[in-house]
Amino acid sequence: MSSRLRFLPSLLIGLAAAASSETLTLDQVLGSAAERPAVQAVAERANQAEEALRIERRRAFWPTVGADFTRTRRDRTLSLSTPIGDFPSGGRTGTSGALSVTQPLLDPARMLHGIPAARHDLDAAQASHERARRERAAEAAELFFDVLALDSRRRAVDAFVKSLGARLDEVSARVKAGRALERDRLLVQLALDDAEQSRLELDRRREVVTHALGRAVGSDAPVEPLFTVEIESTGATPVADDASLTRALETRRDLAALRARLAATDRRRAATWAELIPRLEARADWVRSSGDSTPQDDWVDASVRVTWQPFAAGTRKPRARALRAEERAIEAELREAMRGVAVQVREAVADHRIAAGELKAATTGVKAAQEAVRVTGERYRAGRDTVQDLLDAEAILRDRDGRRQVALLELARARVRYELATGELLG
Fold first, then answer.
1. Which of 134, 179, 190, 292 would suit a FRET pair with 84, their CA atoms being 20 to 30 Å apart?
2. Alpha carbons 138 and 267: distance in angstroms, whole number
3. Residue-by-residue DSSP string for 302-334
């Protein structure tokens, strides 16, 4: 099979993918990934926490309305004994109904601790949602740069294939003129076949990664990246000093979620002991009855009730101990997370510096490889170097140029990782 026929399936796949794909910039990828359905499920938990806070407030401050109906039947007729005789005090059957309104006046456990605990739960859920958005965005950015890295390698291979094609024509002409051996032409042809196979493998991998990028942004179609890497776009070189670590510890939303959970648990433990404080509520009842000896059929009762529960079946201390154990677990998790954040920031800074160093070295390597190709080409045309020497020099240039393109992408990728580690991504 000729090289042109081998390249045809790759070309058809590329055209089919381009026809059904969508093109997104990095900002669009970050935004779409942050709003995908998996993130919205976390946002729903935040909505539920907000509703729980509203319910807790209503229970603490809003009145409640109730109604009851009672029908009684006695085994005898009641009578009232007096010195002048007995008088009936009601029939054997009776009915009564009441409509009541109860207004909480003071509920220390709920007002002082229950509502703040629910508010901390809401803060934790919102912080978890923000962190989930940033993590999904960072995952999509990784795939975004993976596609661009494959494209960079593809361009380098394309340039190499084009160079080998021209070299094959040149060597073939030299073979016909008797100035080169057939072995030289076969070596160039073999190198050209290998390069075209590498290009086909890159196309296959790119097809998979673009579909993965589409899934990461919530799309059924593959996504094509639209991005121009500039050195200036990667921002200033980050530093893992005390100020940056402190800023990361304050900014990271997953740490904020753990702190909010810790505060909520502390409030609930305090609410357990606040139950010892008496509760105060006002109540008004409208009552209507029949079948008794009173001449009034209906009346209104108004009362202020104080409720005190000094003993709750021995459950307060176990509940407080369980909540304290949960606090200690969250505190340990928070300490581990803070150590992990410090490691992530230092790792991201190191990755950024390594990428910057690789870019500098790759840029120098490209210039040196270009000069080597020029010199080797002149020596080959002068008969002082073999075609294999020239092929090796061109392969080195292709490798150095590919490394430079990948180093540019890795520098931008390292910046995204740094912003994720410090909590600044999508901030």
1. 292
2. 34
3. EEEEEE--S--TT-HHHHHHHHHHHHHHHHHHH
Residues 6+ apart with CB under 8 A from 289: 94, 95, 96, 97, 297, 298
Sheet harboring 64-73: ordered strands across? 64-73, 90-106, 279-292, 298-307
Interstrand relation of 279-292 and 90-106 (parallel, antiparallel or unpaired): antiparallel
* Arithmetic mean of pLDDT over the chain: 85
- What's 178's DSSP letter? T
- Which one-letter amino acid corresponds to residue 421? A
Tell me how far apart the alpha carbons of residues 397 and 391 are, in angstroms, rounded to a whole number. Answer: 10
Measured between alpha carbons, how far is residue 93 from residues 66, 76, 90, 293, 398 in Å? 24, 10, 8, 12, 103
Q: Decide if 302 contacts 284 (C-beta within 8 A).
A: yes
* Residue 335 burial (CB count, 10 A): 11
Strand partners of residue 81? 86
168 vs 88, more confident: 168
1 exposed, middle or buried (CB, 10 Å; 0-12, 13-18, 19+)?
Answer: exposed
Contact, 227 vs 38, CB < 8 A?
no
pLDDT at position 165 = 86
- Rounded CA-CA distance 180/167 in Å is 12
Q: Which residue has the higher pLDDT, 20 or 70?
A: 70
C-alpha 106: how far from chain center: 41
What is the number of other CB atoms lying within 10 angstroms of the CB of residue 83? 4
Query: What burial class does residue 193 get, using C-beta atoms within 10 Å of its C-beta: 0-12 exposed, 13-18 middle, 19+ buried?
Result: middle
Token code pair at residue 18: 């381009």
pTM of the model: 0.77
Q: Are 280 and 105 in contact (CB under 8 A)?
A: yes
Q: Where are the alpha helices (DSSP H) in 252-386?
A: 253-274, 316-381
Confidence at residue 272, expressed as pLDDT on a 0 to 100 scale: 94
The single-letter DSSP state of residue 275 is: T
394 alpha carbon, distance to own chain's centre: 44
Query: 100 with 283: CB under 8 angstroms?
Result: yes
User: How sure is the predictor about 48, in pLDDT bands with cuts at 50, 70 and 90?
Assistant: very high
